[in-house]
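Hi U.,

Before I forget, here's the chain from the pilot set. I'm dumping it here mostly so it's searchable later in email.
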Amino acid sequence: MRDTGRLIVIVLFKGVDLLDVTGPPEVFSLARRESEDAANYRVVLAAETMDPVTTGAGVRILPDITFEEVATAGIDTLVVPGSVEVDGEHRVTALVDPALVTWVKKLAGRTRRVTSVCVGAHLLAAAGLLDGKRATTHWSTARQLAAEHPLVEVDADPIFIREGNVWTGAGISACLDLSLALIAEDLGEPVALRVARQLVMYLKRPSGQSQFSVPLEQVSTTRRIEDLRHHIMRNIGEPLTVADLAAFAHVSDRHLTRVFKTELGTTPHAYIESVRVEKARHDLESSDATLERIASTCGFGTTDTLVRAFRRQLDTTPTEYRRRFRAT
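Structure:
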């Protein structure tokens, strides 16, 4: 095929998540407008055949080109969406078609930049493109990704992660944030911010922004830890030491730390800070409370401690977070 502009190829297959496919083209289209055609993006949908493809939402989409044809082109960015199935107990499993994995691996070899959207990370991992790399995916399939691909360092928290020329995105709506980040890399932050405004987004979210809230994390299998989690949330404004929590659970400090690591994959101190940051995020989004007040009610004590926690976990400050995500 004729090679003109920045060719962005979106992989299309049966059962693919619809927004994974339709979201990025809208963002890149706006980039062309906001950069006065400097972007020169050209988006095509590629599938194994030219037959209509039925997405997971039941909407049928027509491919623009076949995998075989696009494999001869110079691809700038390969976008790999995902697909899931949900069983009767609402358990989510990412689907991986071996034939599709073969094509993804082949196309990636001709691509300047490879990206996955949501559970598309499972396809990249199956193709060996994430080995030795840190990657994210939708939180509901993160454990599956880690279990099936031990060479991948799975981080289920950020909305997207960049490792060299490989980018992985989290939840379905994060495809917009990932696309904006790609535009920022190509054309600069001012263009990406103008596109974000056209999308009526508060602002382009940083990669470190968490994709889910602490209370939504998968629950522990131990009732004692669940009781501790509820105790922490009820008393988040109070000083909470390991000794305090151990006394509440009637165990030793060392045993408490060991159980937290086993059940939640973190330390008591790190978990408490995560809960405090989550509450502070909610307060910043929904109230006019001062930083001093929020630091106090969330258990940070001082605004300096609050700011340091936000920098560690979200790579931003409370003031900047409020400016970006304040509900109006």
